Structure prediction request, 137 residues.
Amino acid sequence: MDIIQETFSSFLDADEIIEPSSPNYYKETQVWSAHKNLYPKLVVRPKTIESLSSILKTLNETDIEFVVRGGGCGSASTRGVLISMSAFDSFEFNKEDETVTIGAGQLWRDVDRKVEEYAPGYSGKSKTPKQVMTASN
Prediction:
């Protein structure tokens, strides 16, 4: 086992470490264009802020290349370690304030669907300016 993977195993749960042979590897590493995929050596998917902090601290003490990937948009890839934020998929709708707070792992299509579910007519696709929700993560 590679030293960085061994280090991660000392503080991450098994389901937070995704190897190339893991069933979730493709889902976590897929990018918009196949030629942009650098096939990370390892994917880590922290479930807590504490895990994320430990991952970043560990990687910052090495020269291993890493990237942080939000909801999977764009071409976030690396030959080193990919940090997937997909477990940070929280969604909070405040109808009174007309705000949505989303986790860094949310996909806009899911946010739009959830907003439409909680407040029909308020989705980001709305044509009426007063009905457009603001979102922050």
In short: DSSP finds four helices and seven strands in the chain.
